[in-house]
Amino acid sequence: MNIAIVGTGYVGLVSGACFAEVGIDVTCVDIDAAKIERLRQGVIPIYEPGLDDLVRRNSQAGRLHFTTDLAGCIDSVDVVFCAVGTPPDEDGSADLKYVEAVARTFGSLINRYTIFVTKSTVPVGTSRRVRHVIDQELARRGCKVDFDMASNPEFLKEGAAIKDFMSPDRVVIGTDSPRARKVMERLYRPFLLNNFRVIFMDIASAEMTKYAANSMLATRISFMNDIANLCELVGADVNMVRKGIGTDARIGTKFLYPGCGYGGSCFPKDVKALSRTGRDNGYRMRIIEAVEEVNELQKRVVFDKLRRQLGDLRDKRIAVWGLAFKPETDDMREAPSLVVIDLLLREGAKVTVYDPVAMDECRRRLGDRVTYARDMYDATIDADALALLTEWKQFRMPSWRVVRKAMKGDLVVDGRNIYEASELAEEGLVYKCIGK
Questions:
Q1: Which of 15, 48, 170, 276 is a plausible cystine mate for 93, CB 3.0–4.6 Å?
Q2: Other CB atoms within 10 Å distance of the CB of residue 284
Q3: In angstroms, rounded to a whole number, what is the distance separating the alpha carbons of residues 31 and 416?
Q4: CA distances for 30 relative to 10, 204, 414, angstroms
Q5: Domain boundaries, the chain
Q6: How far is CA 144 from CA 6, 138, 197, 402, in A?
Q7: Helix axes 286-298, 203-234, angle to 10 degrees
Q8: pTM for this one?
Q9: Cα–Cα distance for residue pair 387/416, rounded to 1 Å
Q10: Which one, of 154, 147, 253, lies nearest residue 211 by Cα?
Q11: Superfamily of domain 299-432
Q12: Model confidence over 44-91: pLDDT tens digits?
């Protein structure tokens, strides 16, 4: 079976490599010629554990190809996946110009029955809009070619994307066509061998499922952060509260960890887009609006604790451990670190940063506004305070004795609640976390 995936970003590249791994012939298409050339040379533009090996292996096996020209493969593929970005517009809605551009190209090229599958995260109703764009292109050409639409949202976690794709909780496919359903069943047959669930539904429901899933997870995070902030005021311990409610089978333990807010390419964008979809349809998503508001405030919490403990931050040296929005990625989109660092710099603080993989991304975003450390301990030299913002494994059990000797001050602010206060107290460090 042959497929094309337009867009070689996070979703497109991971999906293409994983489909190729199970024997499907995949052509990944992107308009960025330099990026395509780097991919042909085995240079992966994103950090994702295992992805470089997967791309290299399937490229060498002749199952994974990279091109800038969809026209060169369109007549040989059964399915074209649209995996281009849908960044938030100024009003919070998803910007669909890249999706529509792919649809126009698709409509201008197809000569036989092909399925257009939207894998990009798009608002409900997008497939109708895309179908109209394709129909317009076919009418402009003066020809009639059968095609079908499908929605196949992704549920990949950065840092565990390959496992999520190869061993999914579920595969959601929205289509109103029995013919398209048969093709998609065949495409996902290798995953059915291990009894993974493929859930078929109508297109609108599939589009909504993606937003609802991410917004529910974001809601749990913001809910727990709200509880944590109240715990601090009333003298409760949010870790005990989390355990107390997480043992309830109706609630469970996942995504109940308080911290300094969520970030990344999905949750912030999708929460905004779902809220906007509600407004566009005359309905206010009050819970979703509160989720976003709580999260934006929570990104300040580490800064507020630093300022409360240190007072005037001018010329104070702050060490920051962790820049990516989560471990196992170099993605800093909407990361709490960006908010914390910006607030510190505005107050006149001097910031030294370290992250295992996101240093280059930080240089691209912040340039020389901060100092870049060689390693985690180098970042703490002469620091008045240390702030942990990303819970990388290598940060979980540091030598507090080394940290204490390196630092000028004694304050550690734990934005992810991964440390034990007693261990830091033994070395004379003052420990502050979230929700205690």
A1: 276
A2: 10
A3: 39
A4: 12, 27, 41
A5: 2-201, 211-297, 299-432
A6: 23, 6, 35, 72
A7: 50
A8: 0.90
A9: 10
A10: 154
A11: NAD(P)-binding Rossmann-like Domain (3.40.50.720)
A12: 998 999 999 999 999 999 999 999 999 999 999 999 999 998 887 777
The token pair at 317 is: 């040296």
Instruction: Give the pLDDT confidence of 98-136 residue by residue, as tens digits.
Output: 999 999 999 999 999 999 999 998 988 899 999 999 999
> Would residue 28 show up in a list of annotated catalytic residues for this protein?
no
Q: Which residues contact 183 (CB under 8 A, 6 or more apart)?
A: 78, 79, 115
Instruction: Kindly report, residue by residue over 45-56, the tens digit of the pLDDT.
Output: 989 999 999 999
Q: By C-alpha distance, which of 58, 78, 49, 46 is closest to 66?
A: 58
CA distance linking residue 6 with residue 70, whole number of Å: 8
The pair of structure tokens assigned to 116 is 């257009």
Per-residue confidence (pLDDT) for residue 196, from 0 to 100: 66
Structure tokens at 96: 């669909």
Identify whether the C-beta of residue 70 lies closer than 8 Å to the C-beta of residue 6.
Answer: yes
Residue 121: per-residue pLDDT: 87
Are domains 2-201 and 211-297 of this chain identical in fold? yes
- Rounded CA separation 262/268 (Å): 8
Q: Which one, of 131, 111, 18, lies nearest residue 70 by Cα? A: 111
315 Cβ partners below 8 Å, 6+ apart? 348, 349, 350
Q: What is the third-level CATH fold of 211-297? A: Rossmann fold (3.40.50)
Of the candidates 18, 73, 266, 433, the residue annotated as catalytic is 266
Fold classified for 2-201: Rossmann fold (3.40.50)
